[in-house]
Amino acid sequence: MDYGMIISLLCASDIEEARGFIRRNGLAFEEGVDDLVGSYENGRLVAVGARAGNVLKMIAIDPSHQGGPLLGNIISALIERGSVAGFDSLFVFTKPEYATSFEALNFSLLTSSGRVALLEYGKGLERWLSSKRSLLKPGKNGGIVVNCNPFTWGHRYLIETAASQVDNLYLFVVREDRSVFPFDIRYRLVREGVSDIPNVILLDTSSYAVSSATFPTYFLKKDDSVARIQMELDVTLFASRIAPFFGVATRFVGTEPYCAMTGGYNDAMKRILPVYGINLVEIERKQADHAAISASRVRDLLANNDLSTLERLVPPVTLAFLRTAEAGLILGRLPKPHA
Predict the structure, then answer these.
(1) Where is the domain boundary, 99, 122, 145?
(2) I need a surface site. Which of 10, 189, 206, 222 has the fewest CB within 10 A?
(3) DSSP label of 201
C-alpha cells in the first residue's frame, strides 16, 4: 500500500541518517525498535517514525512539512506493520499539546499527567473493560495491583488484610512479561494462593499498567524525572478509567522500606488518588527474621541456592512450585548477587 513514499529504513546509512534527523528535531534516538520508517523528498529525509512492540515512538516531521499529510502517512504505515506483527492495539506517548493531532488519526486519549499524554489506537481499553463486565459487583470495593515475582507470604498478608476491609477486592496481576517468573506462572501461583479468600476477584492488567521498559523518554527534557512521570501516568490511568469501572473506592499497598522506586510509586498514589475520590490504605509489611518479606529477598535466596528460610517467606503453593523442574529452568537464569 502506498503511503506517499513511506519506506522501511533498513541499511546502516539510512539508520544513521534517521538518527541525525531525529536528533535535529530535538528527540533522542532509541535502539531496539521493530520498525523504522521514513519519507524522502528530493533525496532529503523529511519524516521518521518507529515501532517497538505495541508502542509507536521517535515520530518526527520536518518543520517545513508539519501540518500536512506526512504525520498521518507515517502513523498509517506503522499501524499496518504493527497489525502484521499481531498487535490490534497500539500506544503512543506525546506531549499533551500534540494529543489532538493523534486523535485526528483515530487514537483515543487514555490519560494525561499534565506533562505527558498516553493515547491508544484500537480501543483496546474499552474492549478489555467490556470483557470484564461479568466481574462487576456492588458494594464497598477495593483494589490491589501486584506483580508477585514470585508470590510470597507478604503478598498473601497484604491481600488477606485488604480483603477483610472491603466487600470485594479486585486483585490485578501485572501481565507484562518482563519479570523473572513468567506471567502465567505468577498468575497461577496467585490464583492458587488466594483461592480460599472468597471475596477476592482475580484478573490481569492487560496492557494498562504503564511500563518503564517501554516508556519513551525521547521527548522529555533532561531534567524531567522519567520515573516520576511514568508513575503519574500509571496512577492516573488507574484512578480515572479502571477504578471507576470496577467501583474501586480504596486502593491498598504495602509499606515500602527498601525500594526507592516503589516508595516513589506509593507517593504518587498519595498525591493523585484522592483527586479522583479514591482512598489509599498502606498496610505494614509482614516480616520474617526481623526483616520485611519481599519478592526480591526470595529471589536473592534462590540465586544463592539458600533454601533454608524459604518456608518463612513463601506459601506452600510457591514452595511446591520452586521444587519443580519447571522452576529449575527459571532459577538457572537468576543473576548471582554480588558478594
Answers:
(1) 122
(2) 222
(3) E
**DSSP E strand stretches across the chain:** 6-8, 35-41, 44-52, 55-61, 90-94, 107-112, 117-121, 141-146, 168-173, 200-204, 248-254, 279-283, 287-288, 291-292
Q: Is residue 284 part of a domain?
A: yes
Same domain, 313 and 165: yes
Q: Are residues 118 and 220 in the same domain?
A: no
Q: Let me know if 337 is exposed, middle or buried by CB neighbors in 10 A (0-12, 13-18, 19+).
A: exposed
Residue 1 is assigned to a structural domain of this protein? no
For residue 56, the enclosing domain spans 6-122
User: Does residue 35 sit in helix, strand or coil?
Assistant: strand
Cα–Cα dist 173/192, whole Å: 13
| pLDDT tens digits for range 276-323 | 999 999 999 999 988 999 999 999 999 888 888 899 999 999 999 999
Which tens digits make up the pLDDT trace of 51-87? 999 999 999 999 999 988 999 999 999 999 999 999 9
- Specify whether 252 is located in the same domain as 217: yes
Q: What is the DSSP letter of 286?
A: P
- Integer angstrom CA distances of residue 326 from 102, 182, 189, 323, 335: 44, 11, 13, 8, 18
Between the alpha carbon of residue 159 and those of residues 10, 58, 162, 176, 235, the distances in Å are: 49, 40, 5, 21, 19
CA torsion sign, 282 to 286 to 292 to 298? negative
C-alpha cell at 14: 539510512
47: in domain: yes
* CATH number reported for the structural domain that contains residue 144 in this entry: 3.40.50.620
From the number of C-beta atoms within 10 Å of its C-beta (0-12, 13-18, 19+), residue 290 rates as exposed
